[in-house]
Amino acid sequence: TYNGNRTSRECFLQSCFTYIHLSGDAFDSDALKIAWMLSYMKAGQASTYALHVLQRPGGVGSFTDWAAFEKDFQAEFFLIDPAKSAALALRNREQYGQGKQTLDEYIDSFQVLVEQAAYSYGLQLCLTFQDDLHPALMERIDSLT
After folding, report:
1. Within 10 Å of residue 25's Cβ, how many Cβ atoms?
2. Contact, 37 vs 74, CB < 8 A?
3. Which of 28, 46, 108, 136 has its Cβ near the most Cβ atoms within 10 Å?
């Protein structure tokens, strides 16, 4: 199920695409695809969105096709400017940093933000990475030099 969490939106949408594609002729109309996808939006902001779609005049048929629904879904759940949001997240130490993440988790999340921000690798990026490491880990690294 999907609850509207922005961090899992792409995974949810891709999972729906994959299932619909692999199901072949089981989804013979865009309205059926849309209704099926809405049926998995059962909590949080996603359930509010699904209810809104179902209660509007025409319900799932109010969308001209799957592409129109996908555009509406993305407008509701995707960031307007993901590159800018990622760049701002990298600069905001309170919002982003290693915190309680393992080093591997931190590296993975840092790489995702760097790719979303379309940053090129360089000294400033290395310093940003280093500045956001957990203080105990930084002390340990500093003791090695």
Report:
1. 5
2. no
3. 46
Nearest Cα neighbor of 49 from 67, 69, 68 is 69
Joined tokens for residue 112: 């995702």
What pTM was computed for the model?
0.56
d(CA 70, CA 134): 39
**DSSP letters along the chain, please?**
-B---TTSHHHHHHHHHHHHHHTGGG--SHHHHHHHHHTTB-SHHHHHHHHHHHHSTTGGGGSSSHHHHHHHHHHHHS-S-HHHHHHHHHH-TTTSS-TTS-HHHHHHHHHHHHHHHTPPPSHHHHHHHHHTS-HHHHHHHHHH-
Tokens read off for 59 = 């319900």
pLDDT of the chain along its 145 residues, tens only? 887 777 778 888 889 989 998 998 888 889 999 999 899 988 888 899 889 999 989 888 888 888 998 888 888 887 666 666 666 666 665 666 667 778 788 778 778 777 777 777 666 666 677 767 777 777 777 777 6
The answer to whether the beta carbons of residues 98 and 106 sit under 8 Å apart is yes
